[in-house]
Amino acid sequence: MNRTVKWVLIIGVSLIAVFIAALVLLPKFVDLKQYKPRIEAQVSKATGRAFSLGDDLRLSLFPYASLSFSDLHLGSLPGFKEKDIIIVKSFDVRVKLVPLLFKDIQVKRFILKGARLVLETGKDGRTNWEFNAKTTPELSPKTPKETKKPRKAESGEGPALKAFTVGEFAVTDGSVLWLDHKKKERKEISDVTLLLRDVSLDRPIGVTFSARLDKQPFSLKGNVGPIGKILGKGTIPLDLSVKAFEQVAIGLKGNVVDPATQPEFDLSINVSPFSPRKLLVAMGKALPVSTSDPGMLNRVSFKAGIKGDSKNVSVSDGVLDMDESKVNFTIKAGSFAKPQVAFNMDIDQIDLDRYLPPAGQKEAGEKEAKTAEPKGAKKTDYSMLRRLSLNGTMRIGKLKIKNAKIERVHLSLTSEKGIFNLQPFTMVLYQGDVTGSGMFSVQNDVPRTNIQLKLDNVQAGPLFLDVLKKDFLEGMLKAQIDLIMKGDDAVAAKRTLNGNGDLLFKDGSIKGVDLDGMVHNAKAAFGLAEKGGKAPRTDFSELHVPFSVKNGLVSTVNTALVSPLIRLTASGNADLIKELLDFRLEPKLVGTFKGQGDTKDRSGLMVPVLVTGSFSSPKFRPDLEGMFKQEIGKSLPGIQDKLLGTDSKKEESRPVEEQIKGILKGFGK
Question: What mean pLDDT comes out for the span 96-101?
């Protein structure tokens, strides 16, 4: 028995010795250089492109299985500018063989130098990474296809390792070149360096990565792991910092769970303050929008907690600092095929006017939109919005837009199947309250919008002065507005605008027109008197403006003004498309000072007022011709002769301008 065991041991040791000797001696007796042409030919045949290796191809099997080579070239296809698609200056890997039998991977070194990848697209759309179809193996018609046995369901777990260590891991002097001759684009990632330290399964792995993106620096540094004995399973900690273009610094810390099977992540992100303007300059790009204030978008920082998996993502404790504004927010999103999004956002203050395009640029764009509508323009695709389910709230402490100063904005926004509802909507506007609701529908190709607003005790003077840059009306404003429009641009919205509204101004004044003084001096009433006099104005206790809108034309027939001496009615139109005014005001003198509540019509001389011109430059003038025809011609025909000193029948043949001059002389007496 002992003799048998002895011989078994001798034979076993001898076999191991022979195996080790073979591993040591085989590479010494086998000259790989003589196989280099065959290797090159086989790779060329398989890929359909030229392949070559340097002369220092080496192979060793003991004590480490090692492979090294240099000057590798994999050629591109004919017709491309770049000769090679892959270049490797040198490669050296050394792995212990015996520990592999026990699932213990021990890599002494992994060194890759000068690797270069070139991805090129020609003017004809061909790409150099497409392989020749002729090189794809095909089944012989005489050989029946093999029947594949059904595979067992995978457990989803990676291989369980006993140990994994790497002594030296370095990728240096790497680069990736992207060429698109069709789009005339060139992008390059150069000076790629990747270093790993303390590579093992049970310790954090130190990671250092650096590169240049179009000659601008990018770096990543930190720790990953421990990664665990089952690759792709378990919780993997991350603690990384990223720096890009010498402008942005990002900190990323947290955990990734089961990245190979059911990935989950729980991370905190911190972006240090940076300038988006300077970042884009470093990237060789211009700011996609021009802002009226060039000092905007010069300081942005961000931090938040981000958690999720392949189906859901949530952002908590989000804080965005942008210039002078601070935004606190939370977001939850899921079911990405049909996105379901919920959000909550608080903005302390924001001046949107500073982010809008300069006034001149905007006006030019609007003018082009009015004069030229391209035929066959591509329609906006709203399919994504139709799939979106949205539920969120927003609060803004102070908001400035179109020079209007708004406070305490609160709104709720929901959407389902392409219908977005804004309800409720509240804000404080020039010491008054505004409530409203709205609906935006993209169920059809042409969007539809409904707006309902209610204003209570809004100071009209400061509002119009800030928004319209016109100081023409004062008073406390109450209003109700209900409008409907279609289209996805301002021009289309104006053309399809329909609805109605009711404006009520209390205890105010109209500046630029003195309706009270009209009965005494028509010249002074319309600013026609000599300079140096008091600026004309009409005080009122109530101004009521009901209106309707049809296809962009605003009309009113029952507008009424009440003041101690004057009752005024108005009718006319405002064309929102052409931005033109056409109104006629008819004032009447009140013969008593009974009080503000006196609504009885009084007799008196009526001098109509015509309001014409554009929105930006309205014009007021007396309608003396109308006054002549309606009052003097009908009621007091003899006054015409008295004022003009001529026979009325003869005066009818005189030009209207001369008649008006005569009437003005009469009122001047």
Answer: 74
In a domain, 658, yes or no: yes
Contacts of the segment 200-208: beta carbons below 8 A, 24+ positions apart:
200/163, 200/164, 200/165, 200/166, 200/226, 201/161, 201/163, 201/164, 201/225, 201/226, 201/227, 201/228, 201/229, 202/226, 204/237, 204/239, 207/240
Look up residue 122 and give its two tokens. Answer: 């020609």
Which of 360, 387, 403 marks a domain boundary? 360
576, part of any domain: no
Using an 8 Å Cβ cutoff, are 514 and 540 in contact? no
CA dihedral 160, 162, 168, 172 (to 10 degrees): 0
Whether the pLDDT of residue 596 is over 90: the answer is: no
Range of the domain at 78: 20-130+159-231
| pLDDT digit string, tens, across residues 475-492 | 999 999 999 999 888 888
272 and 345: one domain? yes
Predicted TM-score of the model (pTM)? 0.73
Peptide bond before 226: cis, by omega within 30 degrees of 0?
yes
Q: What is the pLDDT of residues 40-62, one digit of tens each?
A: 888 888 888 888 888 888 877 76
Q: Which of 186, 201, 231 is the last residue of a domain?
A: 231
Residues 190 and 268 in one domain: no
